[in-house]
């Protein structure tokens, strides 16, 4: 097994607002599509990376509690983190060094009120 996680879904009350947020913060286009009655905005995962989507539908309720998803912050998480507040989110924990071996992390809320984090080597 290459990764313990292979898919994640981030709840949204307003899919367009959430897709705009992630598009701006991650500097990517977020493709939307309806699948099985759910409105989904797909986040790029690279060739072999973990995939995920922003999802609006029954049972998808944004929350600042529960599991914490760490998104890939690239080589330096300062880049996406610096776009969080302008895109409608809030930085909760600024860029913080974990250790030399592990790198850095930061925690934020998205436009929907979900608590997430970034990780990067520098």
Walk me through what this model shows.
The strands form two sheets. Strands 1-4-3-2 form a four-stranded mixed β-sheet, with helices on one face. The mean pLDDT is 95. The chain is 13% helix and 40% strand. The chain has one domain: 2,3-Dihydroxybiphenyl 1,2-Dioxygenase, domain 1, CATH 3.10.180.10. It is mainly beta. The chain is built from two helices and eight strands; from the N terminus they run E-H-E-E-E-E-H-E-E-E. The longest helix has 12 residues, at 15-26. A hairpin with a 7-residue loop joins strand 3 and strand 4.
Concise description?
This protein is mainly β and about 120 residues long. The protein has helices spanning about 15-25, 80; strands at about 5-10, 30-35, 40-45, 50-55, 70, 90-100, 105-110, 115-120. The mean pLDDT is about 95.
Give the assembly state of these chains. single chain
Gyration radius over CA: 14 Å
Whole-number tally of structural domains = 1
- Would you state the CATH class? Alpha Beta
- Low-confidence spans: none
Number of strands: 8
Largest sheet: 4 strands, mixed
CATH superfamily label = 2,3-Dihydroxybiphenyl 1,2-Dioxygenase, domain 1
Number of helices: 2
User: What series of H and E elements makes up the topology?
Assistant: EHEEEEHEEE
Span from first to last CA? 27 Å
Q: State the share of residues found in helices, binned by percent.
A: 10-25%
CATH topology: 2,3-Dihydroxybiphenyl 1,2-Dioxygenase, domain 1
Nearest-integer average pLDDT: 95
Gross morphology is globular
Could you say which structural class the secondary elements and strand pairing correspond to? Answer: mainly beta
Query: Which architecture would the CATH scheme give at its second level?
Result: Roll
